[in-house]
Amino acid sequence: MDESDGAGSVDAVHRMFQSIREEVERDRILRKELYNVVRELENSNREMLTILQKTHSSPTKPVAEVAAVRKEIKDCVKAYVRQLADRIKPNVYYKHHEIYRYALQRLAFITMFASFLEEGELLDRPSVAHELDLKVDANAGFHLDLEDYLFGVLNLASELTRYAVNAVTAGDYARPFQIAAFVKNVDEMFRLLNMKNDALRRRFDVLKYDVQKCEQVVFDLAIRGLKPSQPTPSENVEG
Question: In CATH, what class is 27-144?
Fold first, then answer.
């Protein structure tokens, strides 16, 4: 091999690593941008959660709180979702999933919590995605991952369990029976799933304690003669 061949090999290696360096730098910039957007999204999540926490002390229908959450979603959250969608192509969604997955799980939970307080029903995954301008199909773009939605459902069950306890304190004796039926239904539906995600399975294990707590609340109300005259139907749970 003459010197020109050796020089050519060196140049080829140099070009290859130059290309790799540029790709790594683009990825670094993208991740930084994603973290910045997610930071703002998490700020909105915290603000909405603070608003919804006020409902724990009020037995009345939380119209003002739900309206405030919907306004935050419309005015801020959807803009952050669009910023993420503009930066993430379908083929790299899971490459950067760890950056925004927890924010999306929390956002799904907040959306479902607000809807449950208003309508008394569980939003299915397409409805949550629609509320947030997210896709459902992974091939269609930036979407609400199924497992992220399921984490949101489990978080909702835990939050409603606490809500049931506080409802009794506030003098609302009907809501705990509705919540108990809902949480039990969620537990039954999750047991039908073959969960391969270890984190999701561990999170599901906590649900049995939520079921037990709800059962204790409604049992205490029943023996005190505070059970509603008409039984509260179990809510439909759709994935």
Answer: mainly alpha
Q: Which one is the CATH code of 153-226: 3.40.50.1820, 3.40.630.30, 1.20.58.200, 1.10.10.10?
A: 1.20.58.200
Domain ranges across the chain: 27-144, 153-226
Cα torsion through 62, 68, 70, 72, rounded to 10: -150
pTM for this model (two decimals): 0.86
Cα separation of 119 and 182, whole Å?
13
The contacts of residue 31 (CB under 8 Å, 6+ apart) are 96, 99
159 is in an annotated binding site: yes
pLDDT in tens, 75-121: 999 999 999 999 998 889 999 999 999 999 999 999 999 999 988 89
